[in-house]
Amino acid sequence: MFNGEYSHSIDSKGRITMPAKFREELGEECVVARGFEGCLSVYSMEEWQKLTDFLMGASEFQKEIRLMRRAILATAVTCSYDKQGRILISNELRTRGNLTKEVMIVGVGPKIELWDKETWEEFNDISDDELSALAEGILNGNRSKDGGI
Asked: Is 137 within the bounds of a domain?
């Protein structure tokens, strides 16, 4: 499970250093693909397999599935680390994620997100009141009988 956020620079060749903690959990290879809200998603091979199994197991007759397959699978790149613990982000993915210099590497449970630092700061600028309202809305229908999550 990935958590935490780290600020790193992406070099002119498109390489970014993954935090050691994340590299250990990702394993020898990872998959980078288009994400949501303007970020890129980084998956361990195990999580990537779960996602592709889901997408390939769904009906091709559903337009949403076809669109998701194209959007995510077509952009995916398998990456391995160089000796400095860096992965190479393709030009296409760097453009999609607007990754130019400062990158936020954010652990969000089963995957990692790569964000342009400025975009992340704007996107993640959520007040305590907004966070409380989100939590209340999400948790309202998902409480267990003993009152826990």
From this structure: no
